Amino acid sequence: MKELKVGLLGLGQIGSGVYQILRSKSSLIRLRSGVSLKLVKIAEKNSARVRQVKPKGVQVVSDAMDVIRDPNINVVIELIGGIHPAKEFILAALRAGKDVVTANKALLAEEGREIFAEANRLKRNVYFEASVGGGIPVIKAIREALIANRITSVQSIINGTTNYILTKMSEEHLEFDRALKLAQQKGYAEANPTLDIEGIDAAHKISILASLVFGGWTPFKRVHVSGMSKIRSEDIAFAKEFGYVIKLLAVAKSEHGKVELRVEPTLLPKGHILSNVHGSFNAVLMKGDEVGDLLLYGRGAGSFPTGSAVVSDLVDLAKLRANGNHQVVFPSLKLLNVRPVSTVLSRYYLRVLVVDRPGVLSKIAAILGRCKVSISDVIQRERRVGSVVPVILLTHGTLGESIRRAVQMINQLLVTKGKVQVIRIEGES
Ligand code: HSE
């Protein structure tokens, strides 16, 4: 029987899920995998959390180093989140001869290159299934099931909070602030909701996926990120009129050795498979050259889905350790060549607030024409002579740089009020 002695850092949302799963599922896991997982020590500073979970049959300490230095422990699970001191704890655990399991996407995306280099040097393992897509086994799918594929594209909804907010705004016609409050009440949002709302959490996750699928390391700072707080419920309503929904889409594509990486609110045709991912659910749509299109869908957050991913890593590590093995996850840590979004060809949705009088549209059309942006649709629903109305324009495929120049010029027109709302359209050309 392969036995793994486990130490856990952090008894928060995910930590408590891992504790419960290990308690209730140990015999099932033993039966299904031949692996015995034994949680021997938990480090948690916050005594209120300890009182709430009341761990049984396991020692609870307040100092993480007490777990990391324990010679009895084979694997340390890091679930405290954030960059520091999580990074120092992981490095200390590796140097103490332990393998590590983590759900910490921010740390892996921003500092993972150093962590994996150190793990490779020490011939130790860092597993991270829970860092992307909660309970969805996307990392295992890429590393194992899709190994025979060159993956050329990943389109994903990998932030449950923003997907919940956009769904509420769309279905219940709520404004952003109200929908955010609901998401926080449900416990979906990160401690600091800015990470979710401004797209950073999704950027961390797509950066990890891109490093895995494209065989190199993604320089996180090169991910083009735009948050969803700029989306108004009227954008959702106008998009609907044209047959689209708005999603915070995280995309990674590779072409001619260059990688396109972006997280931003995006219009998707309502028939697109990702348009039907609602609420806090996540989905990852990949294109492999052998398998074709593949969709993974499930719960992207929460104690038990994410805990389930952590426990699957433990079983993998128990098997690896039994063979005395180290497995290289990233064979190359060379930085990937990222393409500027200004060179990407896309269709766009523009919402321009203008004074309602003759000749205004022709001024906007003239600028678009000069910047080589071709218009495919225009609507002006309201009529308020002399006052301000929204005009919506959809474009044909155009370069990011052309749309940027055009929007800058439209923003400067005297008849334009406020800034033009610009949203990319994905899923058709
Ligand atoms: N805050 C994340 C989300 C869950 O809303 O999807 C953890 O990754």
Automatic annotation (TrEMBL):
What reaction gets catalysed by this protein? L-homoserine + NADP(+) = L-aspartate 4-semialdehyde + NADPH + H(+)
Please name the pathway.
Amino-acid biosynthesis; L-methionine biosynthesis via de novo pathway; L-homoserine from L-aspartate: step 3/3; Amino-acid biosynthesis; L-threonine biosynthesis; L-threonine from L-aspartate: step 3/5
Report the residue ranges that make up the ACT domain in this protein: 349-425
What biological-process GO terms show up in the record? Answer: methionine biosynthetic process; threonine biosynthetic process
* Example GO molecular function: NADP binding
Keywords in UniProt for this one?
A: Amino-acid biosynthesis, Methionine biosynthesis, NADP, Oxidoreductase, Threonine biosynthesis
Report residues binding NADP(+): L9, G10, L11, G12, Q13, I14, G15, S16
Q: Which CDD domains match?
A: ACT_HSDH-Hom
Q: Which family does it belong to?
A: Belongs to the homoserine dehydrogenase family.
Q: How is this protein named in the record?
A: Homoserine dehydrogenase
The organism is Candidatus Danuiimicrobium aquiferis
